[in-house]
UniProtKB/TrEMBL annotation:
Keyword DNA-binding attached: no
Active site: C35
Protein family according to the UniProt entry: Belongs to the glutathione peroxidase family.
GO biological process, one term: cellular response to oxidative stress
Native species: Pseudobutyrivibrio ruminis
Keyword line: Oxidoreductase, Peroxidase
Protein name as it appears in the record: Glutathione peroxidase
Amino acid sequence: MGFYDLSVEKSDGTQLSMADLKGKVVLVVNTATGCGFTPQYEPIEKMYEKYHEQGFEVVDVPCNQFAGQTPGNDEEIHEFCQLNYNTQFPQMKKADVNGDNAIELFKYLKSQKGFEGFGKGPAALAMGVMLKKIDKDYKNNPDIKWNFTKFVIDREGNVVARFEPTADMKKVEECIASLM
């Protein structure tokens, strides 16, 4: 099974087949509306505007698994993102990214790129301290650790990078730009 064999439910209940994204560079991200990382919607939208015409797509999957930071329904989430960040990329149906009810897309992405750490800096340190209280072994499993974990897929459907929420968004854009 590969990236193009998967699909994800859109907020309107229809399916988005990853096969429809063949030949495009794709950013898949689990998002939240009430998180300290929520302002990352702004640089994601800027990348979408900058690279969309060149074949860049965003697959935004809202998720409420991390401290209940996405409490609204799909319509409320979409409205929040449009009002606060003027997002133009499509949002998928709110879904789980970890555990028994995780959607297949995230199961696949995690199998391709596991957790490699939060990097350096205060946010990275804070995430490590917080997660160690939740799961002492968090470093050794591929689970999504928090909102705004990002996966970059190249034009051939390969998962080429995983960026934790603490990653510098400039590094995310550099990765995407290198594939355009």
